[in-house]
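pls design
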């Protein structure tokens, strides 16, 4: 979960922590090695905090990382044995940070349960001392780590790459999953706005499945509004940002967030194969410096991605790309966003069609299994539409419960249920829980009344004279998120 101007560890990632203290140095390898050293130092100096208030619910296994807003731990459910990533944010939470946290919770809870390539947010918990986000644990590290692990075997003694860092078939395997997840976000009126390798995690299986994470900069929109997907906030990571985003700070012009996500996706595809960025700010390494943004923008306007202007040594690797792949990247890296290829067109592009047809069997089996799972999920969602009234009511009920819980997190509190006497409560009763995992399955067992749903989900966790020990709240799509689909957030423009 991100906040403006900083990057904290992906709460679900089983490895490296990222921090603004690490300055971007140009190549993927330099940045990753710096982050790895910093993360190791953090792990060596930080021990699991035994005072989160979760001791009766989770067993803490290890510390994963620390960011600007909290610490993340690998924990195991005492009841089920399930491993999860728990991000603990100290109370009281700052109001500006809470606004971003709330929006990310609502967006990720809605999206994650509906797509297997998006990290799932399971629960939100409030303890006397912390606001805790319980998320799917993805043990394979980031896609950045995966690509940089290929460097030693692919480079000669001088550090020059012998060839592409992964095959086009493997790149297509990852890219297909990624594009499907981004398409799902856009279909559900969400633009991510910070797509990059660091925000793409891998499962521990072989071949790994990707999971998009970190929706801290994401934004939802109201499709009923004219030009609803347009936004004017300069936000993201410069090397992944398209020209219309880099220039909006000067021009003030709104841009299409969906088209911006397509550009960022193209950068990811390029980096997976080439090991560096098509447009870079090597002269101005600090991404928070406006000069870094101008450097990238100038390259985008005046040079081709194939020139690798900032790092010319990569050009010989670009020449190794197949003609179909070069054509796809040509159509992605179009400076006029209105002429840029769409996700639907990407899925039908000759490179995708060719690689999918000749893909190794181990990749094909995983993609087929993911497609089967997704079809099953989509059928459940379609059945939900028959219960629109109940879904709308349950969504509002969840929104109310979550809002009150998060409002309580803005204040220091000796107990989570602020109306209760702490002397009469066990440690477990001092934890308020909102379960976000039941969104799909709540509505697939036939028609039910909202009154029954409300009763099943339990009372309002912060209502007077109640202690809700285990409410079940549905993660059902809403028409508007906390930002109303239009309000922009003040941010620093860059993140590493």
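designed seq:
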């Amino acid at each position: 979960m991100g906040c403006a101007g900083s990057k904290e560890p992906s709460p679900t990632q089983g490895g490296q922590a990222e921090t603004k203290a690490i300055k971007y140095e140009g190549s993927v390898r330099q940045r990753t090695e710096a982050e790895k050293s910093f993360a190791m130092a953090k792990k060596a100096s930080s021990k699991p905090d035994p005072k989160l208030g979760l001791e009766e619910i989770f067993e803490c296994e290890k510390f994963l990382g620390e960011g600007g807003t909290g610490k993340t731990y690998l924990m195991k459910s005492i009841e089920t044995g399930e491993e999860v990533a728990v991000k603990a944010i100290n109370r009281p939470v700052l109001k500006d940070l809470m606004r971003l946290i709330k929006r990310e919770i609502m967006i990720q809870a809605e999206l994650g349960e509906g797509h297997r390539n998006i990290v799932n947010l399971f629960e939100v918990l409030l303890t006397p001392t912390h606001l805790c986000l319980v998320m799917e644990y993805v043990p394979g590290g980031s896609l950045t780590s995966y690509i940089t692990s290929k460097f030693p075997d692919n480079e000669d003694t001088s550090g020059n790459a012998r060839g592409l860092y992964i095959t086009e078939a493997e790149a297509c395997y990852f890219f297909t999953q990624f594009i499907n997840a981004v398409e799902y976000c856009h279909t559900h009126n969400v633009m991510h706005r910070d797509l990059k390798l660091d925000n793409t995690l891998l499962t521990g299986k072989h071949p790994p499945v990707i999971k998009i994470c970190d929706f801290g900069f994401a934004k939802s929109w109201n499709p009923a509004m004219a030009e609803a997907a347009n936004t004017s906030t300069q936000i993201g990571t410069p090397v992944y940002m398209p020209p219309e985003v880099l220039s909006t700070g000067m021009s003030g012009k709104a841009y299409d967030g969906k088209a911006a996500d397509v550009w960022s996706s193209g950068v990811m595809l390029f980096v997976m194969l080439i090991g560096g960025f098509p447009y870079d700010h090597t002269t101005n390494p600090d991404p928070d410096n406006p000069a870094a943004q101008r450097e990238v923008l100038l390259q985008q306007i005046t040079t081709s991605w194939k020139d690798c202007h900032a790092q010319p040594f990569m050009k010989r690797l670009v020449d190794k790309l197949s003609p179909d792949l070069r054509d796809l990247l040509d159509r992605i890296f179009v400076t006029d966003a209105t002429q840029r290829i769409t996700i639907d067109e990407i899925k039908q592009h000759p490179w995708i069609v060719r690689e999918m047809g000749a893909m190794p069997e181990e990749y094909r089996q995983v993609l087929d299994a993911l497609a089967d799972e997704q079809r099953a999920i989509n059928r459940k969602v379609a059945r939900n539409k028959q219960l629109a009234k109940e879904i709308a009511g349950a969504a509002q009920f969840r929104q109310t419960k979550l809002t009150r819980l998060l409002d309580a997190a803005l204040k220091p509190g000796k107990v989570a249920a602020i109306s209760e006497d702490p002397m009469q409560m066990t440690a477990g009763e001092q934890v308020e829980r909102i379960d976000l995992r039941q969104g799909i399955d709540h509505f697939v067992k036939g028609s039910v009344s909202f009154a029954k749903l409300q009763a099943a989900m339990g009372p309002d966790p912060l209502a007077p004279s109640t202690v809700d020990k285990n409410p079940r709240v549905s993660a059902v799509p809403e028409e508007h998120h906390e930002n109303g689909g239009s309000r922009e957030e003040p941010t620093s423009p860059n993140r590493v």
